[in-house]
Specification:
The chain contains nine helices and 17 strands. By secondary structure, the protein is an alpha+beta fold. It folds into two domains: about 75-205, OB fold (Dihydrolipoamide Acetyltransferase, E2P) (Beta Barrel), CATH 2.40.50; about 215-325, Nucleic acid-binding proteins (OB fold (Dihydrolipoamide Acetyltransferase, E2P)). The strands form four sheets. Strands 3-8-9-6-5-4 form a six-stranded mixed β-sheet. A five-stranded mixed beta barrel has the order 12-13-14-16-15. It is globular, with a radius of gyration of 20 Å.
């Protein structure tokens, strides 16, 4: 039994606890059970229960949070930010600055607009209009992420208006897109989650559009790209580098070892336990959001393994607890 203190997201992002967590995961991979003295990850339900026990001052803060989540994701002082001018808005999560740089917003993925001969996804144009509206009052402030560029060469960053209010949180609060969390760009992850939760509860934007309802992992309509899927856990397997959660149907969820510190400990421990049985006794249903990768398009042995039924056709990487939940 491992008895451990909690670690906050900010501490994990800074890397101060990295090696201790590697040691923790090595123990988990070997089959040790896990007991945590305080929950590092708190669900919205847990936070709501905490508020019920809190003094009146906490309810006042909660009301402010509910009215304007993006104000509480405000730009922190003493951060290295740039003052920039936005020239073009490509879609709900990508802009071009007057200096020519493209910026991909951190923490959100919005529906696609029409491009490359492909039609726009539902609400794709709406998300672009929402972002354009938020960018009317320039200049804008740019906070570049810890991981500064993606593989397309775009700058990865957070945008704020002239008053320091988070534009990304505002988009999430309106349901313009889905939250994404990819290590190491986890600044504001909890605040973004709270903003998204407001949209989800009110069924705003993507949360009220049937096109974005979860697709069953058994569905024939699965395809590569960003998706919201749901399915029953069929089996769990461990390797030295990852946990693979196989859903009934054609989806495999992959949690790389480096992402394990950002997954809810109780769920992680449950999955490790399931890896020891050939078939789970109790049904475990999950909803996951992320990018589905079609193994039939991969190089190497993967396509043949899919055709022989040795692997699921689609794989989705789970990079953070906000990307999935138990149903």
């Amino acid at each position: 039994m491992l008895c451990l203190p909690s670690v906050l997201h900010r501490s994990a992002e800074s890397g101060g606890y990295w090696w201790s967590y590697r040691q923790i995961q090595e123990a988990l991979w070997r089959g040790a059970s896990l007991q945590v003295s305080e929950p590092r990850f708190q669900s919205m339900e847990t936070r709501q229960k905490t508020l019920k026990k809190a003094p009146m001052g906490a309810f006042f803060i909660a009301c402010l949070f509910s009215m304007q989540a993006f104000a509480l994701c405000a730009l922190e002082p003493d951060l290295a930010v740039e003052t920039v001018q936005v020239k073009d808005v490509f879609d709900g999560d990508t802009v071009r600055l007057v200096d020519g740089r493209k910026v991909r917003l951190v923490g959100i993925n919005t529906p696609e607009v029409a491009h490359g001969g492909k039609p726009a996804e539902p609400l794709g144009d709406d998300a672009r209009v929402q972002l354009q509206s938020m960018l009317k009052q320039q200049p804008i402030r740019l906070l570049v992420g810890k991981d500064s560029h993606d593989h397309y060469g775009r700058v990865l960053g957070h945008l704020f208006d002239g008053q320091g209010n988070s534009i990304i949180a505002g988009l999430l609060q309106q349901g313009a897109g889905f939250q994404v969390a990819i290590v190491p760009n986890l600044r504001y992850v909890d605040c973004y989650q709270a903003a998204q939760q407001q949209a989800r509860e009110a069924r705003l934007g993507v949360w009220g559009e049937p096109y974005y309802d979860p697709i069953a992992a058994t569905s024939d309509d699965l395809k590569g790209g960003y998706a919201r899927i749901k399915g029953q856990v069929e089996s769990v397997s461990l390797s030295k580098k990852a946990i693979f959660v196989e859903l009934e149907g054609q989806v495999s969820l992959k949690i790389e070892r480096s992402a394990a510190p950002y997954i809810d400990e109780a769920l992680l421990d449950r999955l490790v336990g399931l890896s020891r049985v050939t078939r789970p006794d109790a049904a475990l249903w999950l909803e996951a959001r992320g990018w589905l990768s079609d193994r039939l398009t991969w190089s190497g042995a993967a396509p043949e393994k899919v055709r022989k039924g040795q692997q699921k056709r689609y794989q989705m990487k789970i990079t953070h607890q906000v990307a999935w939940q138990i149903l």
